[in-house]
């Protein structure tokens, strides 16, 4: 039975599938494409969704990823590129068996996501298992608790970590064993609560210990200053230390920045922020999932944008920010190709509250989806951006360019900008200020003392201050190009 989603039912009958398959197999153009795919066979990516926010973002990512593949693959064929995130299963057998990809292509039967779902409450994961995406996930991929982590990093890390850590690693190992060449883990979580921050930290530490050769990209959501979790400053500080020590690349998102983007063009307060975060992940992985003239492997992001182990925090922005995320904005006037690039580096489109143009770029990447009118348009716009961006002196040519042929669902073109920029200090300074304000009065500290040594707060604060200072060092005018 084919995994389907509303509007994404590719196949109608076995006979129709076979006819389509034979026709496509005989197509010379497709044959050339397949040979290219075989030479550049993608490597697998396992997505780890931790906590309520992580699973909500993950749910939207999988939903939109299926819609994208359906839009560009109406015949329902399973390509090598899809194997990065999905397995193609024959459910006529018990247990189901994975179908081989013949000559780089096969028929979709039932898709299974390469993912592990973790939450210490059952609600969100149960909704996934019972909802329209239910065929994508099996209970063997999920770990859930009942009572939650009490918005306490220490409870998630020091109680649920040891309690569930072995079971989580077993599920990750099970997914890894199904991969031919595991490339990296994508970690989705938030830092404000207890599970995404605490248990998420434990998982990152475990991945570092057990899969040190596999890259881990984290996409954490930072709480806003008026977050409804009063202990979020504690949780965020403790979790950031793990991001510094155990993640290879981090793309932080600030809730406040998401709210500002929505208010800028979209007045509906009920629109969920994880729609935008899911689209960030779609753009980031577009070159893995589709063909392009300048495909960018996820490992290339770290190689080109991370100059030293701890300076691995990247500022993200998308242009257009809304039309790629929400169908109801698709009718708005399209941005011109030149506007895509001009707007991508503006403060209003950043996924953190910071201004990269006022600070120093250590390196940057521009990942384009959809086709430019010609290659010269692409190079021309990059040249214009270079004139506006303050580059560090030892990396004046630190620009990585990616181009995926397939546009997003609701716009003809889109651009994702990733920047290793010293403006990343801004959210970290706000985090430090919020922590000190709360910790000065020792508010709620006794809840953490139940599970951890309170010296951890000082260690985490020192780690954050060192990171801020290291980024500040690159804003010295003598280091600018």
UniProtKB/TrEMBL annotation:
One of its GO terms (molecular function) is GTP binding. Belongs to the tubulin family. Its main location: cytoplasm. This is Tubulin epsilon chain. One of its GO terms (biological process) is microtubule-based process. It comes from Adiantum capillus-veneris. Keywords: Cytoplasm, GTP-binding, Microtubule, Nucleotide-binding. Residues 294-433 form the Tubulin/FtsZ 2-layer sandwich domain. The lineage of its organism: Eukaryota, Viridiplantae, Streptophyta, Embryophyta, Tracheophyta.
């Amino acid at each position: 039975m084919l995994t389907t989603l509303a509007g994404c039912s590719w196949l109608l009958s076995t006979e129709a599938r076979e006819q389509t398959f034979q026709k496509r197999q005989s197509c010379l153009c497709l044959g050339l494409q397949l040979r290219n795919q075989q030479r550049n066979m993608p490597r697998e990516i396992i997505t780890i969704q931790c906590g309520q926010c992580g699973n909500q973002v993950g749910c939207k990512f999988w939903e939109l990823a299926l819609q994208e593949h359906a839009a560009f693959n109406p015949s329902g064929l399973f390509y090598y590129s899809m194997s990065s995130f999905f397995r193609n299963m024959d459910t006529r057998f018990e247990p189901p068996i994975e179908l081989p990809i013949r000559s780089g292509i096969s028929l979709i039967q039932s898709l299974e996501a390469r993912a592990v779902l973790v939450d210490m409450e059952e609600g969100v994961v149960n909704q996934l298992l019972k909802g329209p995406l239910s065929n994508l996930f099996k209970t063997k991929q999920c770990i859930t608790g009942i009572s939650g982590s009490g918005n306490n990093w220490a409870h998630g890390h020091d109680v649920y970590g040891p309690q569930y850590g072995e079971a989580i690693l077993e599920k990750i190992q099970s997914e890894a064993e199904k991969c031919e060449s595991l490339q990296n883990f994508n970690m989705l979580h938030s830092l404000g609560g207890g599970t995404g921050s605490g248990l998420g930290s434990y998982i990152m530490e475990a991945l570092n210990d057990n899969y040190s050769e596999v890259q881990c990209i984290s996409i954490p959501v930072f709480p806003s200053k008026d977050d409804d979790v009063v202990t979020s400053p504690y949780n965020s500080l403790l979790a950031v230390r793990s991001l510094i020590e155990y993640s290879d690349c981090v793309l932080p998102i600030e809730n406040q920045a998401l709210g500002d983007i929505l208010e800028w063009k979209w007045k509906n307060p009920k629109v969920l922020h994880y729609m935008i975060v899911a689209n960030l992940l779609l753009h980031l992985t577009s070159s893995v999932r589709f063909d392009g003239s300048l495909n960018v492997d996820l490992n290339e992001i770290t190689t080109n944008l991370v100059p030293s182990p701890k300076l691995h925090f990247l500022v993200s922005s998308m242009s257009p920010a809304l039309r790629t995320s929400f169908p109801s904005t698709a009718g708005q006037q399209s941005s011109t190709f030149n506007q895509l690039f001009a707007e991508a580096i503006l403060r209003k489109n950043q996924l953190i509250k910071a201004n990269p143009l006022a600070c120093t770029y250590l390196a940057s990447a521009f990942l384009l989806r959809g086709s430019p009118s010609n290659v010269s348009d692409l190079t021309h716009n990059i040249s214009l951006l270079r004139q506006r961006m303050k580059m560090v002196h030892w990396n004046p040519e630190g620009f990585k360019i990616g181009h995926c042929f397939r546009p997003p669902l609701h716009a003809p073109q889109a651009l994702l900008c990733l920047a290793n920029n010293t403006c990343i200090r801004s959210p970290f300074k706000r985090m430090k200020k919020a922590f000190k304000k709360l910790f000065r009065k020792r508010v709620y500290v006794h809840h953490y003392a139940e599970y951890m040594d309170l010296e951890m707060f000082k260690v985490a604060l020192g780690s954050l201050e060192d990171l801020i200072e290291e980024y500040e060092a690159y804003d010295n005018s003598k280091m600018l190009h």
